[in-house]
What does this fold into?
Amino acid sequence: MSLVLALPVLLGAVFLVLTALTTVYRRRPHDIDNVILGARKLDLADLETLLDASSEWNLRRSLSQWALQRAQEDRMRLAREYLRRVAFNAELIQLWILQEHKRIEDKKREEYTEIDRLIVEALELTTNLRLYSVVVSLRLCVWMILKAYGWPVRFLPSMTDLRVRCGVNVLQEYRRLTEIALLVSSTYGKTYRDRLFEAL
It folds into this structure.
């Protein structure tokens, strides 16, 4: 008897969730204004320092075990935040670039202009960066759950290992993505380019 009552309730809940996902929460097309307003500022130099082998080696050499473990915990949290920003910005740019891609869908590759080629490259970069962010975020989550920052120094995970994963060098690809986004935005005019530069 309880299954007979529970089934309609469960089906009703699934229906409500699907309706909400397809109406209220569905992804809407984005334009350059959405990127400018929504982008999360990321100083790539800070991320580069965080993933730099020499800075990590200096920390391991100069800090006590306890201080190094605390520093690694902070660095893991910081890396997680930076990767959230990379993934978020890559998604925003991807949604905008998809709109740009619609106008070149019917073109043959030989007819592509330089901007058209950049749009195709940007789509590939955004996909790579989003995949990278998922994989590395999962790795960081596992490290945080296992409290890997508290392990003995020789077993302490290295942040440098996160620089390249799944064949993606996060620093190179994110830098290239922002360059392309700025070049594509310059087709809207200098004002848009400057605003996007400030946002990213």
User: Anything to note?
Assistant: The two ends are 58 Å apart (CA to CA). The chain has one domain: 29-199. The chain has a mean pLDDT of 89.
